[in-house]
Design brief:
Its cofactor is FAD. The protein has 497 residues and is of the alpha+beta class. It is built from 14 helices and 20 strands. Strand 17 and strand 18 form a beta hairpin.
Length: 497
């Protein structure tokens, strides 16, 4: 027991079947899946802040892309021989299709009353300039255009056509430099904060307990194979007991899993990266751009630095957002502590973290460059997309804090990592992108790993919720088209109109 937790506690020894730490999209998704698979299980969610989805799931803390690899070029890197590897793009799209299916199920089941409250049809575009980049994008389109998950993707090097798709991209250009773009009507803008709140509201109606301002301080297991979760809520200590615990606490998941002392977390570390965006709500500017447009990261820059100019719809209001601009803070959460990074250091992860640092000197140089860059230098990056951009129209906003995974082998991983104890009684999620967009497949993977003895019995219900799980859509074009059309109709997305 932590020294700062009182002996007399709220809910002393209260037991629940499933205890979820963190009130973001991951915990909400897992709670909803479990409620369908095991409706008799009790569920409790502990959230440190006053309301859910205030960290990475919040609408201004992520780009809301609905990562489907339709536009994100970092998922289709160019090899040294000039060829393009699209395997990751296909995998990411497959995962997003599973999320779409699960959201459609929630809408059809009445658990989400209005899909327009969290998802909007928004074209996805890739946009590049310069002869080498144009050649790359043309090859990428050639490979993907015939794939069932990327059906209908268009390509053009014609400024007039690109201007028709997204006028701001051509505004202010002289025409001296070759440009190219791809365009897909299958893209979406997703407000993951709104989606999280909708799911959790439904969970409350179904009997789940959600405790806010519940700051978890310790997670440990006793000899009776029960997990004990302790902390403080509004200054009063609490103590909950659970057979299964999920740590979906964003950047704080690392330190809470370390406190659990499970061997699977040994060697893992985290490197925090903050981000900033420029945002405008000027209706004259917003009206001229309806798309999410991704470019190529600068040479030597990390994948997370891919610049993009996005339409965002939050609370019914449209805005444009451009970024990201990387920063650094030792906090592991936007509302975290300056001591977070240092608190995560252990004897077992020091060497992996040193290895990661030495292997990613380029990233360090990039971050330093971003930190010392002048305001005009940063704005000029926006002007590479939108040449006529006026600084008076744009404001700076701070995005969510991300913690990149450092693996025990010293590799800095730009993605997510599911950590599960060998007996499946506790699990957690580390890492970032594509994150929220792939919440459903990530939580399905977690369920399979933690409850292997129940997995086969769950299959009929899982197939109702997520029809293509376990059967890649890329291998069945007819099924891919059928599911795409059905989910588009349920989610009220006017794709391929």
């Amino acid at each position: 027991m932590d020294n700062d937790v009182d002996v007399q506690t709220l809910n002393e020894g209260a037991e629940t079947d499933v205890l979820l730490i963190g009130g973001g999209i991951m915990s909400a998704t897992l709670a909803a899946l479990i409620a369908e698979l095991e409706p008799t299980w009790s569920i409790r969610i502990l959230e440190r802040l006053d309301e859910p989805a205030q960290e990475s799931s919040g609408p201004w803390n992520n780009a809301g892309t609905g990562h489907a690899a339709l536009c994100e070029l970092n998922y289709s890197p160019q090899r040294e021989d000039g060829s393009v590897d699209v395997s990751k793009a296909i995998d990411v799209n497959e995962q997003f299709q599973l999320s779409r299916q699960f959201w459609s199920f929630l809408v059809e089941s009445g658990h989400i009353p209005e899909p327009g409250a969290f998802i909007q049809a928004t074209p996805h575009m890739s946009f590049v300039w310069g002869a080498e980049n144009v050649a790359y994008l043309k090859e990428r389109h050639r490979i993907l255009a015939g794939h069932p998950l990327f059906e209908g993707m268009e390509y053009s090097e014609d400024p007039a056509q690109i201007a028709e798709w997204a006028p701001l991209l051509v505004a202010g250009r002289t025409g001296d430099e070759p440009i190219a773009a791809t365009f897909s009507t299958d893209g979406t803008d997703v407000d993951f904060g709104a989606l999280t709140k909708l799911i959790l509201a439904s969970m409350t109606e179904r009997g789940a307990q959600i405790d806010y301002r519940a700051d978890v301080r310790s997670v440990h297991r006793t000899m009776d194979d029960v997990w004990h979760v302790r902390g403080k809520q509004d200054g009063v200590a609490f103590h909950h007991r659970a057979r299964f615990v999920f740590v979906g606490a964003g950047g704080r998941a690392l330190t809470l899993l370390q406190k659990s002392r499970i061997p699977e977390i040994k060697g893992f570390g985290g490197f925090p990266v903050s981000g900033e965006f420029l945002r405008t709500s000027n209706p004259d500017v917003v009206a001229r751009h309806h798309a999410k447009v991704y470019g190529k990261a600068a040479v030597g820059a990390p994948p997370m630095s891919v610049p993009h100019l996005d339409t965002r719809v939050v609370d019914g209001q449209s805005s444009l957002m451009f970024g990201p601009y990387a920063g650094f803070s030792p906090r592991f959460l936007k509302h975290g502590s300056l001591l977070d990074l240092f608190a995560s250091l252990r004897a077992h992860n020091l060497i992996p973290m040193i290895k990661a640092g030495l292997a990613n000197i380029g990233l360090t140089i990039y971050l330093i460059g971003q930190l010392i860059a002048r305001k005009q230098t940063k704005f000029s990056q926006l002007q590479e997309f939108f040449g006529d951009a006026d600084p008076a129209d744009w404001e700076k906003i701070t995005a969510g804090q991300r913690v990149q995974v450092i693996r025990p082998d010293g590799v800095l991983q730009f993605g997510t990592e599911v950590i599960t104890h060998r007996d499946g009684s506790i699990a957690g999620l580390l890492g970032a992108s594509p994150g929220a967009s792939t919440a459903a497949p990530i939580m399905l993977e977690l369920l399979e790993r933690c409850f292997p003895e129940r997995w086969d019995a769950w299959q009929p219900r899982l197939t109702e919720m997520v029809p293509s799980q376990g059967a890649p859509l890329s291998e069945d074009p007819a099924l891919a088209r059928e599911i795409h059309d059905r989910t588009s109709k349920v989610l009220e997305l006017d794709h391929r109109a």
